[in-house]
Design goal:
There is one protein chain. With about 300 residues, the chain is an alpha+beta fold. The chain is about 30% helix and about 20% strand. It is built from seven helices and eleven strands. The chain has a seven-stranded mixed sheet with strand order 1-2-9-6-11-4-3. A four-stranded antiparallel sheet has the order 5-10-7-8, with no helix packed on it. The structure holds 2-oxoglutaric acid and fe (ii) ion. 2-oxoglutaric acid binds near residues 152, 168, 189, 230 and 242.
C-alpha cells in the first residue's frame, strides 16, 4: 500500500543545515511545519486564550473591527462559510494599527500586552522565513523587509450537524507566505498535494507555513502556492491565528533577475499585490486560478 504523505517539517534551530529541505518543501508542497522556532510556547498559549476571548465577544463589538484594506476586518458567518468568522488587522508591523485593533475590541491592558508581544515576535519570524526562503534558492534574503503583514484570527463554530462539511472552502492565500498557529487540539486543515488532500494534524508548539500566489509569481513559478481548506472533523470550536506576509506595498512584484533567463522566461506580467488582490476579489477566483489571468502569454 502506498504510504500516506505527511507534510515536511523544518527544524529552525538547524540552519544552514535545513536550506535544502526548506527549498524542496517550498517547491513541492508550498507548505511545511516549523519546529524549534523562537516564539515562546507560553506566548503562543497566552495569545490563543486572548484570541478565543476576542472571538467570543458580542457581534456588536466585533463589528467595530472595520476593514482597512478589503477583507482585513471582521468577517461575520456567511452563506458560503456559515461556520466561520474572523477578526483582523492591517498592517501588523504598525504599532498604531495594533493599538487601533485592540481599542476596537475593548482589549484589557494585559490582552493588549500579549497581542503586542505576539505581533512583534511573529513579524520578526515571518521576515526571517522570507529571508531563509530566498537564501535557500541562493538569493539575497533582504527583499521582503518592508512588505506589510495582515493578521487574522479565525473561529470555526463546528456543530454535530456540520461534521463532514467544509469550514473554509478550498483556496490559496493571495500573499507571499502565511504563518499559521493552527488549533493545537482540533484538526481539520487539509493541504492539497498533487491533487490529493493531506490532513495537517495538530502539533502543539509548532507553527505552520503556507506559501501563497505572490511566492509563485515572485519566484517565476518555482515556489508552489498551496491549495488548502478546513474540514469540520468534530463538533467543537476550532481557533487559528494567521499572519500573512503580503507582497511589496506599492512596487510591482518582480522576480529576482537570477530567476529569469532564456530557459526560464518570465511567466507573469508586472502588477502590484493590491491589483492582484482586487483581481481575486472581483473574479471570485480564490484558489489560485486568477494567476492564469496575469500570465505573460496564455
Ligand atoms: O484555520 C486554518 O487552519 C486555516 C485558515 C486559512 O487558511 C486562512 O486564514 O487563510
Ligand atoms: Fe488560507
Amino acid at each position: 500500500m502506498e504510504k500516506t504523505q505527511s507534510i515536511p517539517t523544518i527544524d529552525f534551530s538547524d540552519f544552514p543545515g535545513q536550506y535544502e529541505k526548506l527549498r524542496k518543501a517550498s517547491e513541492e508542497w508550498g507548505c511545511f511545519r516549523v519546529v524549534n522556532h523562537k516564539i515562546p510556547s507560553e506566548l503562543m498559549q497566552e495569545m490563543k486564550k486572548v484570541v478565543r476571548s476576542l472571538l467570543d465577544l458580542p457581534t456588536e463589538i466585533k463589528k467595530n473591527n472595520t476593514d482597512v484594506i478589503a477583507g482585513s476586518g471582521y468577517w461575520a458567518p456567511s452563506t458560503k462559510n456559515p461556520l466561520y468568522e474572523a477578526l483582523g488587522l492591517y498592517d501588523m508591523a504598525s504599532s498604531q494599527a495594533v493599538h487601533d485593533f485592540c481599542s476596537q475590541l475593548e482589549a484589557s491592558p494585559s490582552q493588549r500586552d500579549t497581542i503586542e508581544k505576539y505581533a512583534q515576535a511573529i513579524n520578526e519570524m515571518i521576515m526571517d522565513i522570507g529571508g531563509k526562503l530566498a537564501e535557500s534558492m541562493g538569493l539575497n534574503g533582504d527583499y521582503c523587509k518592508e512588505w506589510p503583514c495582515q493578521f487574522r484570527i479565525n473561529k470555526y463554530n463546528f456543530t454535530p450537524e456540520s461534521v463532514g462539511t467544509t469550514g473554509v472552502q478550498i483556496h490559496t492565500d493571495s500573499g507571499f507566505l502565511t504563518i499559521l498557529q493552527d488549533d493545537e487540539n482540533v484538526g481539520g486543515l487539509e493541504v492539497n498535494k498533487s491533487g490529493e488532500f493531506v490532513p495537517v494534524d495538530p502539533l502543539p508548539g509548532s507553527l505552520l507555513v503556507n506559501l501563497g500566489d505572490m511566492a509563485h509569481v515572485w519566484s517565476n513559478g518555482r515556489l508552489h502556492t498551496v491549495r488548502h481548506r478546513v474540514q469540520c472533523k468534530e463538533a467543537t470550536i476550532r481557533v487559528s491565528i494567521a499572519t500573512f506576509l503580503l507582497g511589496p506595498k506599492e512596487a510591482t512584484v518582480e522576480p529576482p533577475p537570477e530567476l529569469v533567463d532564456t530557459d526560464h522566461p518570465r511567466l507573469y506580467k508586472s502588477f502590484t499585490y493590491e491589483e492582484y488582490r482586487e483581481l481575486r476579489i472581483s473574479t471570485k477566483l480564490q484558489a489560485g486560478e486568477a494567476l492564469a489571468l496575469v500570465r505573460t502569454s496564455p
